[in-house]
Amino acid sequence: MPSSTLHPAASQHSFHLSEDQQQLRDLIRKFAAREIAPHVMEWDEASEFPAAVVKQLGEMGLMGIIFPEEYGGSGLGYTDYMMAVEELSSVDGSIGIIVASHNSLCTNHIFTAGNEQQRRRYIPKLASGQWLGAWGLTESSSGSDAAGARTTAVRQGDNWVLNGNKIFITNGHYADVAVVIAVTDKSAGTHGLSAFVVEKGTPGFRPGRKENKLGLRASDTSELIFEDCVIPGENLVGKEGEGFIDSLRILDGGRISIAALSLGIARGAYEAALRYVKERRQFGKAIADFQGIQWKLADMATQLDAARLLTLRAAAMKDAGEKTTLASSMAKLHASEVAVRICDEAVQLHGGYGFIKDYPVEKFYRDVKLCTIGEGTSEIQRLVIAREILK
Ligand SMILES: Cc1cc2nc3c(=O)[nH]c(=O)nc-3n(C[C@H](O)[C@H](O)[C@H](O)COP(=O)(O)OP(=O)(O)OC[C@H]3O[C@@H](n4cnc5c(N)ncnc54)[C@H](O)[C@@H]3O)c2cc1C
Fold first, then answer.
1. Catalytic residue numbers?
2. Which atom in ligand 1 lies closest to the alpha carbon of residue 140?
3. What is the pTM of this model?
């Protein structure tokens, strides 16, 4: 179990990391401390996309972590993936979300629904980090109700012509490849949407407005604009009319990565708070000596581990090839909600210092809010969970 939060006695169970996983975690930890931590605030202030780090992550195999080696991936599973996203996000959630949307949304959509030719064309470049991927489902009038998309794809001879806008797309501005969902048959409801892969530089396709955000500011969140964008017929990913249904499958995996993003950000905040309460003295003693503070820490540690166990279960089920709709939504809902609470409490434990940018909890507090919104809000997770348990 990848946890600095567990008491040693609690680590004598079956959730041990394998030796390979420990090595990977240590590698990521060292890399994050050396290449990410020193720049976190400067990237955040400037909303600077850390392109060089993304390339390095590609060289480390983290941009293709869940894809088979024959496609240039690292051949690892969701358990490793979850650990990697958590580890990166404990230092900078922006890096976590860049890796998450690239791996489990864009690349995985092509890997899961694409044909062999598409896999061979895109996966090796994406998995190596040579290309960056984005995944576009959301539109200005359709977020939670994603099936209400208005972007259209119309057949024209052997080609498709795309028109419309996607918004809030992670990596949108920097992506070399985007998988986008568009309406191909308005009368067919959820079976009237299809997925397409669009390459950067295709005439009629350009990134638009780059959002100025509360948190995760080093990650890019942009509009994608399609104006009479002509793409070859072969760029249809999966079956015509199945793009939305495939997207729901993709989100089953993606939500595990948002749970891991939540865990990482919350752990970063929790560990910062744990250090701080031992150092900060009031009333003649370390504030960690007050029972009121200890109870807060106990709650934070317990919530974090409970969230990790739910996430680990979803990841293990995914690795076993099981359907994870329920487990993924439970993990995402719980991890994101407790992560918001943990970050809030971490700021509280810092008092006034938690409110200023010299201490890392200020940024964790801003970054973590995305976790209850992206890849389906908490309300939508509850809707999915209720639907599954009432089946
Ligand atoms: C930083 C960031 C990155 C993102 N990255 C991507 C990306 O890479 N690709 C992509 O496609 N999208 C992305 N998104 C979009 C994200 O998935 C949506 O913002 C999210 O799904 C919510 O949609 P919305 O913003 O339209 O909110 P709305 O759907 O308008 O929701 C508004 C409120 O109403 C609630 N609500 C809606 N329907 C119901 C209901 N039936 N019952 C109860 N409550 C309901 C919601 O929970 C929410 O509280 C990103 C968003 C952000 C902020």
1. 375
2. 26
3. 0.96
Q: Is 377 in the pocket of ligand 1 (CB under 6 A)?
A: yes
Both tokens of 174, joined, read: 């920097």
Distance 234 CA to ligand 1 centre (A): 30
On the 0-12 / 13-18 / 19+ scale of CB atoms within 10 A, 279 is exposed
Pocket perturbation via mutation, ligand 1, pick of 193, 373, 381 by most ligand atoms within 8 A of CB: 373
Alpha carbon distance 123, 108 (integer Å) = 9
- Kindly state if the Cβ of 93 falls inside 6 Å of ligand 1: no
Name the residue type at position 252: D
Residue 16 reports pLDDT greater than 90: no
Is residue 149 a contact partner of residue 161, using CB atoms and an 8 Å limit?
Answer: no
Please state, in angstroms and rounded to a whole number, the distance separating the CA atoms of residues 163 and 379.
30
pLDDT 10s digits, 251-292? 999 999 999 999 999 999 999 999 999 999 999 999 999 999
What does the angle CA 368 – CA 40 – CA 55 come to, to the nearest 5 degrees? 100
CA of 145 to the centre of ligand 1 (A): 8
What are φ and ψ of residue 181, in 5° steps? -105, 130
Give the CA angle between residues 113, 118, 120 to the nearest 5°: 120
